[in-house]
Prior knowledge:
Layout: E1 2-8, H1 16-24, E2 29-34, H2 46-65, E3 69-74, E4 93-95, E5 101-106, H3 111-125, E6 131-134, H4 154-164, H5 170-178, H6 185-209, E7 214-219, H7 222-227, H8 232-238, E8 241-244, H9 257-268, E9 276-277, E10 280-282, H10 293-305, E11 310-314, H11 327-342, E12 348-351, E13 353-355, H12 380-385, E14 392-394, E15 399-402, H13 406-409, H14 415-419, E16 422-425, H15 427-435, E17 444-451, E18 462-465, E19 471-473, E20 479-485, E21 490-496, E22 502-511, E23 517-521, H16 533-545, E24 552-554, E25 559-566, E26 569-576, E27 585-587, E28 594-598, E29 605-606, E30 619-625
Parallel strand pairs: 1-2, 1-11, 2-3, 6-7, 7-8, 8-9, 10-11, 13-14, 15-16, 16-23
Antiparallel strand pairs: 4-5, 12-25, 17-20, 18-19, 18-21, 21-22, 22-23, 24-27, 25-26, 26-30, 28-29, 28-30
Helix pairs in contact: 3-6, 4-6, 5-6, 10-11
Amino acid sequence: MTYHLRYQVLPGRDATGLARYCVDHAIPEVVLFYGAEELHSGHPAGVGEDLWFEHIAQAKEVLDRYGIGASLNPWITAGHTDRGRVQDLGFASMVSPLGEVATTCASFACPVWREWVAGHYGRFAGLGFRVLWVEDDFRYHNHEPLTWGGGFEPEMLTRFAALAGAEPTREELVAAITAGGPPHPWRALLQRTWREAQLEVLDAIRDAVAGRAALGLMSSRLDVASIEGRDWASVFERAGVHRPHFAPYADVPGTRLSYSLAMLELQRAIRPAGAEVAPEIENSPHTEWTKSDTQTWSEMVAARLSGADGMLLDLHPFVTGEPQRYPRIGELLDRSRPALDFTAGRDLETYGVGVPWWPDTAARVQGDGTIEGLIADPLRPADYLLPYGVPIRAGIAPVTALFGKVAWGLPDERVEELFSGGVLLDGHAALILTERGYGSLLGVRVEEVTDRWTPSRRPYSMERIADGGGLLSVNLQPALARLAADPAAEVWTRVVTPRDEPWGDGRVAYVNALGGRVFTLAACAPERLARCDDGQALAQRAVRWLGGDFPMVTGGPHLMPQLARVGGRWRLAVVNGSADPARPVLSGVPEDAVTTLLAPLAEPRRADATDVELPHRGYLVAEWPA
Length: 626
C-alpha cells in the first residue's frame, strides 16, 4: 500500500522532520506543496518564484538523502479562487457567464499565462520529481467568486468567433447555449473552443516536463466537466497519472459513502486501464479536527477496493510546522495499513447494475436558461441502489439504470443494446426517451410530469403496492411522472392522493419487442424517495426481475456493496453507512465463502457471515472462487 503524503514545508524550515516522519510511518513518497492555501499570494513569478524554487530544491535534497521519493504539486494553474488576491502579471482574467471578472484566475486563452504555466512547470521539473501534478483548478468551472466559472472572457470569445464564423456578445452566447429545446449549434462550438484551448495548455505543460517527470492530473465531477466539453481520452494521452476526486473534505454521514463508491467506479471507466491512480483523501481546512479518523479510514478502504495504486493524503495542517506535532495522524496511518493491504487488488472487474455515462452528455441536454441546467448527474442511480444493498458498475450492463438528463446522452446506436437487456428508468428518463422516439420500448405512456409545487386538487402523495396494498411515500418527490401502463405491462404500484384517489401508475414492469425488460418508476428522483424496508424489497425485486442474478445485501439501512472479480476470486465487500451496527444478510453468496471483518482502524479478522455485527463504516468482505 503506497501512501503519498501531500505536504507543505514552511519557508525557512528544512524537511528533515518530514523525512524522518516518513521513515517512521513507512511513507515512500511525499508530494510537496508550495504557495498553497494560506501561503498563496498569487501565481509565483520573479523573486517569489525563485524563493520557492530554492526552498523546494532544498526539501527535495533532504528527502533524497533519506530515501523518500518525491513528486511535486504546484498549487495553481489557472487559479482556484480570488479570495481577495490580485495578480499583476498581465494575465487575461476569467470572466463568468454573468460578466463577473476574476482578479487572479487566468483565462485558458491568455498567451501570457500559457507561457508562465509551461515555464513554471518546466523549471521545477528540472529538480527530478517522479510526478508533476496538474491541480484540479485546471478547469473552467468553480473559480470563486465567479458565478459558475469562467470561459467567457474576450480572448476566449475571439477564439469562438473564429470557429463559429459569428461574433455574438457574451449575453447572446450564454442565452443560446442554455436555451430550451434542441441544443443550439453554438453550444458544441463553445465546448470545442474550450476543449482545444485546454488541451493546448496541457500540451505545453507536458512538453515542458517531458523526459524528466510524469504528468499527473487531478479531476473533479464528471457532470460539470461534460459542460466544458472535456475529452477524457485526449486528456489521458497527455497525463498518465490520475487523482480522482471522490470524497468530501469534512465529516459527513456515512450514508454519503454511496457518492464516494460511485465516483470511484465511474471514473475507472474514463481512464486507460494501465493508468496509475491515486485518489485523494483530503481534509479542508487542513486539520485533524475536520474529519474523523473513522471516516478517513473508510474512504481509504473504499479507494483501495476500487483498485487504487496509492492515495494522496492531505491530513496535516499547512501552516503549523513539523508533522511530529500530530502523533494521532501517524497512528491513523499505521493502524490503517493492515486493512488497506488486505483489500489490495489493482486488476478487478466490477459487477452489478450498470450506471452509464457519456462524456458528451451535456452537449445533448435540453437547457433551461442556466449553465447549471446542463448538468446531468450520472451518480443518481448509484445513490438510489447502493444504500438498498444493490451493487453497481460503470457502463451499460445486462441490467442498467438510466435516470434523468443522462438519457439525453444515450447514443442512438446503443439504444437497441440497452433495451435488449434489463433497464431501470425514472420518470424523467422515460419522458426524455419518449421525446426521442423510443416510447414504444418502455411499456408506459408519460402523460405529464408534475412538480411538487404545482397547485392541484389531486396532489400525489403515496404509492400503493399492488400485492398486499402496503403504502410508500412519494410526498416529498420534487416531481412525478404520471404514467399510464401499456395493457401488456405489469403494474407493481399505483400513485394515489392523500384521499386515496387514483393519480397514476407508480412502478411498471414491461417486456418489450426486443425481448428486453424495462422497469419504470414514476419518481423523477428515486434517490430522494423516503427509504424503508418495503422500498428496499421493491428495489431488489425490480433488479431481480430485470435479470440481476448477482449477490445483494439486506439486514440494515445503508449496507452498500461492491461486487468484483479480483485475482480469480469473487469478492463482495459491504460497508455499513449507518451510524448503528448492523447484521448483514448476504444473498447469493456461497455458504463456504471466506468472510473477513474490517472494523475501523483494527486488524482484519475472520468472521461468521451469518452472525457478525458490522460497525459504523466497517466492511464485511466475502470471498469465494470464481
